[in-house]
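pasting for ref
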Amino acid sequence: MKKKILGALLSVAMVATMLVGCGTNQASVPADDAAATEDTATDDAAPADDAAEEAPAAEANGKKVGVAMPTQSSERWINDGANMKEQLEKLGYEVDLQYAEDDVQMQVSQIENMIASGVNCLVIASIDSSALVNVEAQAKDAGIPIIAYDRLLMDTDAVSYYATFDNKGVGTAIGKYIEEKKDLANTSETYTIEFFMGSPDDNNAHMLYAGLMEVLQPYLDNGTLVCKSGRTSFDDTCILRWSQETAQQNCENYLTGFYADEDLDICATAFDGFAYGCKAALEGAGYTADNWPLITGQDAELMATKNIISGKQTMSIYKDTRLLAEKCVTMVQAVLEGKEPEINDTEQYDNGKIVVPSYLCTPVAVDQDNYKEIIVDGGYYTEEQLAE
């Protein structure tokens, strides 16, 4: 579904048919590490199907929504796009869903085509938001509202709202999990740790790092945690485009250069894909169940959840994409009907031009102890899926 569909203005029926098919494709990920994400189990997290059915009928009037997603290489984004498309179509909107496969210029072209086709609203999960400033200005000039999805659109006043998870809270949850699991506040032990942080062009990655280090920096300062590579700053640990391959290479380099005579105890990673890379590097270095480190992640993808069950990954952050899609859909509906959408943050997300009104969903840490209650009982994955 590498789509440059709109140039010929194919019929709506053909576009919808093609996109539904793409929304169900499996992501291709190196080795045995397929990806899949999830979002929050909070009090406001009603099942998405129920929420969509209970939502008042949209005053669609033939209105069209353009949804620009970054890539299908992570199951997380496939789920996001499919969930949003399904919910918007239930409300009567036409949906143009496109994936840019982490190609920045392709995403720019896709959004330009959406504008030219006359979409009434844009939902954008950016690859590199700095590259979208001009095309966002085009949308604003055309009177098309923009909703940033999961990744904040930076350096623009064209964005109307932002739907995301509490990204600093994600980092805080990962940090607190490490703190509690290793009893850092009370232990007399010293633990080695290495960091694998997100893409520098993604504002979420910066916020996650800030939340993580609020918890862990005191333990680095007092020597309870020791990073033998010395790479603890965001600039030293960030990984462009959230590359699993780079995470694996970094981990291999750390193990060879700094842990030949001592085990690595903690891999603090910001993404399940990084956890897969660390897992491969650790297996290549001969680590076994006897010295397997604590490995964190984010998105509770299907493969990550399987790895948690098998003990190859310790935890992940569950983010129910159905909930995030639901919140974004309600924003779209409100904007197109001239109403104010539900917002719960008006201070935190300054994009360099404006503070973007946002709705934040709450992240939840999952591990072997609670994955069944949160993920399986919550209907995100079935026992059969996890057993495959």
